[in-house]
TrEMBL record:
This is Uncharacterized protein. It holds the Pfam family DcaP. It comes from the Bacteria. InterPro entries: DcaP (IPR045748).
Length: 407
């Protein structure tokens, strides 16, 4: 009798665990990635040079020699990735799922510590779904370049993952998206440098609304993005501290399309971007006026026109071509000073990059080689328009070798 009682206790103890897990599925995925690269000069390239963006301006020494005209290169594997997809029991009529994804390519000086890439739960009712957690920014979207560089087309293609609440509705080939987003790892610029305080103190998340249409190999869509920051809550003015109420609000617009044929794809995206430097695009804002009584500032966003196109062909052997172009369109209001600006690449008038690559693809394997020339036209900001004048060009040539094993 005692043995039977022990068996019953064990069954009762284990049953809740079994009942909880029997309707779950788990799928691990990821890859081991090695990047070998070489550049002919210094560049804006976070993640120890892996996340290539654009060449840095000339930096003359005492003899006029350019300190940035120095080759560099290395080999890294810390962008290797591990993730898990989970599906769980339904909640009413909603299918539930979750994702947790990580790698070592973080936002600190260490490349030996894990960081969160994606972490979210999703409720799917078929026609509509709600996602809560961190995943790709909607400006990254369903259309992105197919290239070998880790930057995936940045600074022409928005690249960002943020905590968000996202609602999507699907009907007859249409997908409507509305998202509210906060910042965590990819941060806006401001008086204190890059910080999440600007949107945290704003109490207004980023907003995005957009629509996509899919039919017979075509994917077409457009969207609108709003960001509203509070650069400062206090001002140091004439040896006194004042509480101030400052805000910088900007709208961005994007359109994209992709056509997928039997053995090829053609994709493109165009943006009129404002203050999207936290998505790895050129952009930011400047001070347009200062209150002489307490130092309170008003701001004006920079506008950047950005476009990229991408063509790929083949499956096993896959050549690809990518071209990206960005133009600084200036500010809507005059700047108080050309130096009182916050953002990335605001002294670049134009940026042009191309990627030519060839990859060999097998099940679980990708081996590729890529060549990327980039030209940036640097100058000084005109205080009246915010545009860049008196430009000169600098060029970088980047060669990348890639080996990836998927699982």
């Amino acid at each position: 009798m005692k043995r039977v009682a022990l068996v019953l206790v064990a069954i009762i103890t284990l049953f809740p665990v079994y009942a909880q897990r029997k309707n779950f599925t788990y799928k691990f995925y990821g890859f081991v990635r090695g990047d070998l690269f070489y550049n002919t000069r210094a560049n804006m390239a976070p993640v120890d040079g892996n996340f290539y963006l654009y060449p840095l301006d000339k930096n003359p020494d005492a003899n006029g020699e350019d300190l940035n005209a120095t080759p560099n290169g290395s080999f890294y594997t810390f962008t290797s990735r591990l993730g898990i997809d989970v599906t769980g029991p339904n909640i009413g009529t909603a299918k539930t799922s979750a994702k947790l994804e990580t790698d070592f390519g973080g936002f600190s000086g260490s490349t030996t510590m894990l960081r969160i890439r994606q972490a979210y739960v999703n409720l799917d009712w078929g026609k509509s779904s709600v996602l809560i957690g961190q995943t790709w920014h909607p400006l990254f979207g369903a259309v992105m370049p197919d290239i070998l560089n880790l930057s995936t087309g940045a600074p022409f293609q928005p690249f960002n993952r943020q905590p968000q609440i996202r609602y999507q509705y699907n009907v007859k080939g249409w997908k409507l998206t509305a998202s509210a987003l906060w910042q965590l790892q990819y941060l806006s610029s401001g008086p204190k440098g890059m910080s999440e305080d600007y949107i945290k103190n704003s109490c207004v998340p980023e907003f995005y609304v957009g629509a996509d249409y899919v039919s017979h190999g075509w994917l077409m869509g457009a969207g609108v993005h709003l960001i509203s920051l509070k650069p400062r809550t206090s001002s140091e003015w004439q040896d006194k501290t004042y509480k101030v109420n400052e805000r910088m609000t900007a709208l961005s617009y994007e359109a994209h399309f992709k056509y997928t044929g039997k053995n090829y794809t053609f994709a493109a995206k165009s943006l009129m971007a404002a203050c999207l430097d936290h998505t790895a695009l050129l952009g930011g804002y400047g001070v347009s006026s200062i209150n002489p009584e307490n130092g309170e500032q008003e701001y004006t966003p920079f506008r950047h026109s950005t476009t990229w196109i991408n063509f790929t062909y083949g499956k096993k052997w896959k050549p690809a071509l990518f071209v990206g172009y960005t133009k600084n369109m200036g500010t809507g209001k005059s700047l108080v000073e050309p130096t009182k600006v916050y953002g990335m690449g605001l002294n670049i008038d134009q940026l042009l990059s191309a990627n030519v690559n060839l990859s060999y693809n097998l099940p679980h394997w990708q081996i590729g080689l890529e060549y990327c020339p980039s030209i940036a036209w640097y100058g000084s900001n005109d205080p009246g328009t915010g545009k860049v004048k008196d430009t000169h060009s600098v060029t970088n040539h980047r060669i990348l070798g890639l080996v990836m094993y998927y699982f």
